[in-house]
Amino acid sequence: MEFEQNDPALNLKLQCHLINVIRKKSHGARSEITPTDLQIMFLEHRLRLRIQNPPRGHQTATFAAFIDALSNALSPELQNLILASGSRNPSLQTDRMPKPVSGDMTQALAVFFHEEQIWNLQRQIREAYERSGSTTPRYEFCNYVQDRTLITGTPRGILGRALHIAARQYIYHPELPLSLQRCLHALNETHGAEDLLVPPCEFRGGSTQKNTGKKSRKHTLSLATFKTLKASYASVLPLLAAMDVIWCGRYLPSHPLSAWTGSQEQSGRDYRPGHSFMDTPEDLDIARRTLSYTRWFRNWGLQHGSRKAQNRLLDPAITPEIESDVPEAYAMTAMPTTMDQTQESAASRSCASGAFALPLAPLPEPLFKALQSYRDSNTKKPETGTGEG
């Protein structure tokens, strides 16, 4: 699958790529889902949300209710003004401003817009089914939620974070031998490093959602389990690391609200952590950013680790290159102190090359100490040098 940066379905394609790997390795799924399957799933879920959440005061909103309310609320004068404003006949056009819309008319229009959204969703669903050649959904929303929860859990939070931490360790602490086992040890020692790496989510109202660390404690792994998972998800390990960088940062999405959640979700989502491209399926910017980071992690991981080529952090034989015209990211190691400075410092370079800046900040002191405390059980010699077997 090719990932073109201007493809409107880029986010869906990237999700398909990751979900298919996870489903095959975790569930033994034989068939693969397609971007059209994902589109149908999202559209049908949005349709359910629209039907379940009619406009306030219209709990039984229907097309018939809209027609009745509109006919009662729309005065002949207002009808003429609406017709004149959309007419090409100069004799019908007028410069007069319509009178303020009544409360009844406002409610009628709210029902109309609600019903219009339902009609549009139904049309899009019909067209998507025609493209898929199927009459039934091949991927349900409940399965998507399960797969997404799995992906953003241990694969992203342990496998991806281990590679993420390894890159930051290599840049700021080259005296420590580099290995994913060391990073796993540090994550276990710090209960996933969630409180150390993921900033609290600040909402517009001034409230702050703090990380409790409870979920991280459940994600500590034995070395044997880590190796098993790493072997299963090796092909997407750079992608998981890219996701974790964004998860630990403050990303501003193109769409402030997730496209598949309910309408009661909190609106304060500016520069929020704990976010990935799977939260906003129509957001192309975060998909491009994730791909750009992924390419950097793959190329970096193939070149670093043990002195022996076969023991690098990533194995080229099982870590295929992603075919994309999205430029590879560049590591930004001189970290500005504010988000505005971060954006300003990266703006000129990003605009010139089209690449994204990959923020790799110094490690928090507790995490660095946890990395220092690692001892390789396979050797009795003091740990010196730049690589481990």
UniProtKB/TrEMBL annotation:
Organism listed in the record: Acetobacter oryzoeni
Annotated region (Disordered), positions in chain: 369-389
Name of this protein: Uncharacterized protein
